[in-house]
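Human: My hope is that you can spare some time for a protein that puzzles me. I am handing you a single protein, as its sequence and its fold in token form. Could you go through the record with me and say what the backbone is doing? Take your time, and here it is.
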Amino acid sequence: MANRRQNGKGTLRQRKDGRWEGRVVIGYDEKGLPKTKSVLAHTKTECAEKLAKLIEECGPPARRCKPDMPFGDWMDFWYQNYSKPAIRPLTQANYENRIYDHITTQETYESRIRLHIIPELGGIPLNKLTQNDLQQFYARMKQTGRKQYVEKYGPGLSDRMVRACHASCRMALEKAVAEGLIRVNPAIGCKLPPKKAREMQVLTKEELQRFLVQAKEDGYYELFLLELGTGMRRGEIMGLQWDDLNFRTGELHIVRQACAVNGKIEISTPKTKSSIRTVVLPPSLVEVLKEYKETVNSKWMFPSPQNPDVTRYPTSVSDILSTLLKRAGCKHVRFHDLRHTFATMALENGMDVKILSARIGHVSAATTLDIYSHMTDTMQMQAAVNIDRKIGKTDAQMPEAEERPAPEIKSPVSPKFEPIERKIRKSGTGCVYQVNDNLWEGSFFPRLPDGTRKKFNIYAKNREECEVLLAEMIKEKKAEIAAEKERLKAENAEQEG
């Protein structure tokens, strides 16, 4: 019986043509299947030498990684070989922001400096990293961990980011344990900031009506009517193409999503397998979309106003929402809260939780029940009262649910609300919008001399100050761009001369 080679040493075999082949696993693809490399030689000894050299260059972790290697090197190796191949582009960007800093310039997205995990912990040997090291790291993140947008958000990172960085460390260290590099995972047992669920907000009946009136005035009626009628995620609705909608049956196929990654739009599959789904639109909504289609010259349902060949930038939709809500006199809600508004209306209108779960693309009905427990609790109380009334013959009072929007989304008709007339800013003056109660953002998106575009931002405490700062920034950037154009023109003239 032939001697079995050790794990990480690869395999040797003699081919039918007499030559020897050496093969080693160098990693795994997105489906978890092994990726291999091989070498060929005329003798077994020569093949073994070539295979050993190959393993030294690109072999598996058991060969290339050592217990005393810097934690930063292991973190990078774990992410590139085990984590990155299995996650979506947007998730990749989120992971990389925790581990590295990607300088998202127009020239390159590959430039990186150390930002969160690697700069703080990267120099510690993997087998010397302790729970105390991690705990102190999390404390520093909370106090002074932010490296970007300090003026906007303050010096400390959020509880959510601290927990996310911990999750990355824990998974990387868990893999190190599995590879036999360390005995125990020091991330287990760390004290973390409490997980806080974001407060769910929905628009009231009156707010919803005013919002749709204003959306129609500003030219975004179809987009938000579709959202309130389906509860799709922002990326899903931006990923819609006209071929996804069957106007005859009303079937809408949700098969892709659009997300912003490092300043570019990436098209990928939806969040989960259950997110790939088909929903049936009501006839009234189909008719609205049919009329809207006549005005759109693009395969995308909601194309970019600058380039109809691509979909609208996802984050711009949130900016539009904020503007519409303010003009309509509604409370500020996130785009995702429109999804909550739809789900709440569906439950109030008697839709089964399991059907709702499939319609909005949740993994299971348990997820839906967990998110909308406040609604299902009220529904259960109402059911109990109904039973008591019918069986017990009592006059028990029906518990009232919190005021919610009307179950049907109809064309906006409101004699009491006059929409604010849409004001179109002149080209080249940027745009201004309110971030929160105490912060305004001004942005300018000019075309650079190389033909690309780059976004510049300023922040202020009120609109008036924001407009002044934005005008100053635009003047400065235009001067810089003009100077760069003149420099390039002179350089080209010199080369031609």
About this structure: Confidence is low (pLDDT under 50) at residues 59-63, 102-114, 401-408. The chain has four domains: 11-62, 71-178, 205-391, 431-496. The first strand starts at residue 11 and ends at 14.
